[in-house]
Structures are given as C-alpha cells and as structure tokens.
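Figure 2 data, in text form.
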Amino acid sequence: MNAGLDIDLDTARALVREARVWVLSDGKAGDEAQCLGVTERLGLTAEIRRVRPRPPFVWLMPWGGIDPREGPQRPDSPLAGALPDIAIASGRRTASYLRKVKALSGGRCFTVFLKDPRSGAGTADFIWVPQHDSLRGPNVLATLTSPHRIAPERLAQASANPPYGLADMPSPRVALVVGGDSAHHRFTERDITAFANHLRTLAASGVSLMATLSRRTPPALAAAVSSIVRDSGGFIWDNAGENPYIALLALADAVVVTADSVNMVGEATATGRPVLVFTPSGGSAKISAFLDELARLEAIIPFRGRLEGPTYQAIDSTPRIAIALAQRYAAHRQFLTRKSPP
C-alpha cells in the first residue's frame, strides 16, 4: 500500500475534521499511545473505550465474537451509545470488538487496526503494521517505526516548559530511557553490570543524566541506574506526578535507550538526536531487523559509555500513517455517498 504520500498533514486533517473517533483498548498503555498518537496528529480528540472480555470468550480472540456481557445493549458496554465515524483499535482482544462496531454501524464506521491483528487483513478497513511484520495487503501500510505521541509540537512545548527544573541541568544532557525484561529480552546479571559500567563511564565524562525507568525494569537494574544517576547529580523520575518522558527527549543532546522495546527506540529516533542503544540478552529476528535498518540509516549506534553518534533526519512514521488513514477514510465516505440512494 503506497497511500499517504501525495498530500500533506494539513490536508489530511481537513479530510477528517468532523469525524467522531473511538479508540478501542484492552488497557495496555503502549497500544493506547499508538492509537492516540495517530488521532492527535490528525487534530482529533478520541474517546477511549476499554474492553475487558472474560474467559472463555477472551480465549477465542481475535477470531471469535465479543464477550456478551459487553454487548451494546448493556448500559455499561464499551460499545454503548452513538457509534463513531472512525474506530481505531490495537491489541489482540480488541479485534473482535472492532468487527462488532463495523457490523453495528451497517458498514458505515471506518475501522482501523494498529499492528497485526492475527485475524487477517480483512479485520479492518485500514491496518498499520511495523515493517518487520509479514502482513501485507491493499489496505495495509507498513512503516519502519511505530506511531507514537512524540510530535514536534509536543517536543517544542516540553522544551519551552520543562518540569522539575530540568532546563537548569548543564549540557550536554542525555536522556536515559530504561526498559526491562520482555517477551524477547532478559537483563542478566552480566547485562546489568555491563550497562552500569557504561553508564558510570558516561556520567564521569561530565554529561547530565536525565532518567526514566519502566514498570518492567528489574529491581537490580533500577537500583544500579538510580545510584549512578543520583551520585552524578542527575535527575531520575521517582514516579511522583506526570512522567517527564517527553521533556527528557526534548531537552536531550543524545538519548540512551535499551533495545527491549521497539517503541522506545523508535520514539527516540523521532528527536533526530544521537540514539545510543544497549541490547540485553535475547532478542528476535524481527527486532534485529528493525535495529539493523535504523543502524543502516545512521539513526542508532551501540552504547559504549561514550557520548557519540551522528545527527540525522528525524524518523517519524506517525504523519505518514495519519495521512494514509485520512485518505482511506475519505475514500470510504465517498463510497458510502455513492452507495446511498438519492
């Protein structure tokens, strides 16, 4: 699919200006962020509808139907009320609900799924997948990086009004974005030691460290990072108040990020600043292909404890995804107009 290349974002926003949008979510923050990232780039405000299917219905998803307890006739149903013009979903459990919205609307609702739904390209009118996934089709757009909320406007706003006194930290400043154990990666004791040694060397070179940890960060890694950052006079978010993640990216002269999350690495490359990547034990062919392509584009280099790496054109696939969505939506509306009797 080559849509999304022949109009600009302002034109795309005009195509969807009056659209009412739902985001269908099973509560995963990363999935919601991708959906909101696309809607925000289009200038839309989405209503989040969270689904919570029970066993045995959840076991049959994404191929089966929705949990009857969450049927649209129930007052507390995530599908209750006037149906949207556009429904955007992400996460395996939401695919069944997205198909249900389509059916309830008589085909009028334009449906969007972000990532491979595992139930085929017919799951939605428009599907986005990362380039390293295999799903393809006339309604499928594949891009190198994932959609996200790290828009240039948000970076500029965060840079102009940073919290926690971050603007007073001397340059060079390094944003430290630390993940943790995942389906494909594990931080072994050796990994933690290696990462801590690199980080200690970087701190000793005179940079200001600004760190945020993940809910997945193992305690030993969190303790090592926290100690180094605090001993060097840096900043580490203590989970109080709003996470200053965007401000850290906006203020950073470089970003150190762990490779356990393609989303975190992709978001870092949206800054155009040098991105230094530490890869823990494990991995997968898809993640390796993703990192290899970013390295080929000179957007990332391995983290060796030094402040290094070239600048590059910021990599942000979100506008392209948003534009492609808007184009497909406009075509869908035209089809409905032609199909409706005069």
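Caption note: Residues 14 and 42 are 9 Å apart (CA to CA).
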